[in-house]
Amino acid sequence: SEPMIIRTASAEHQVNRSVRTISTVDDLVIEQAKQRTESWIYEGAPGSKGAPSSVDLESSAEAAALEQSNGQRDPSIFQRKDRRNTSNTVFVQSTMSNPDTEATINCVCTVIRAHMVDAAAEAEQTPEHPKAKIFHDEEFVRSGVAPRVPSLAALVTFFRDMYTKSQMEMECIIMCLVYMERLTKETRGAVQVRSYNWKSIILSTLIMSSKVWDDLSMWNADFSQVCPTFTLKRINELELALLDFLG
After folding, report:
1. Contact 125, 194 (CB under 8 A)
2. pLDDT at position 181, please?
């Protein structure tokens, strides 16, 4: 049966709200690549025995100062230069064929945390779906007190551990975010990633991503061994709930 949708005064606002999409992740990856672009001090062309070419000096005065020093390099006359090439491209450490897994996880977790902050700000206008209780984390169920939005480091650690130990493919990182945003869209904001359900939602969406994309995905019993805080019964319940909401 299809999940019941709660329609509130802010339901349309939730649907029309600009949701962070995968393009946001692309922007974050590029931004991190720019920040990691290596800066270097020119140390001379290959085969020049350490003597820099005058084309890399800031002025002819610097070249003259170099000649007066008998070819000995004086670091004070060299300027720190950004690495660059003639094709006007950014030097990145990853490509489509060799992606940077760590950077992608960081970017996806940044978007997930932003969704959590937005959900906390709109908690009063967008009530939670009654069936969404299935996603409540065990810590929240025991204490009954909603924790604060976790730090980015906590999100990255949980995500990376689950991804690495489950031996998932790179594409599962992005697919996890896709399923998470589809969950919010399909329920018109009645089910969102929040500070008290983020572990369960990340786990269930990662498992679904793995089963859809990976040729040899692990069984739910294996996932319960990878993440001992989630029993096999609990993982089965989360998977069924996610499928129910996504239709």
Report:
1. no
2. 94
What would the two tokens of residue 3 be?
């999940």
Please compute the mean of the pLDDT values over residues 21-31 and round it to a whole number: 60
> What is the Cα–Cα distance from 201 to 128, expressed in whole angstroms?
14
Strand partners, 82: 39
According to DSSP, residue 136 is labeled -
Taking the model in full, what pTM does it have?
0.63
- Residue (of 114, 103, 89, 90) closest to 26 by Cα position: 103
User: Residue type for 170, please?
Assistant: M
How far apart CA 176 and CA 174 sit, in angstroms, is: 5
Q: In whole angstroms, what is the distance from residue 117 CA to residue 236 CA? A: 28
Task: Please count the CA atoms within 13 angstroms of the CA of 234 that sit on its side-chain side.
Answer: 18
Dump the DSSP string for 207-219: HHHHHHH-TTPPP
184 compared with 146, residue with greater pLDDT: 184
Sign of CA dihedral 80, 84, 85, 88: negative
Average pLDDT of the residues in 85-89: 55
169 within 8 A of 135, measured Cβ to Cβ: no
Convert the pLDDT of each residue in 97-134 to its tens digit: 677 899 999 999 999 999 999 988 887 777 788 888 89
∠ Cα 211 27 33 (to 5°): 100
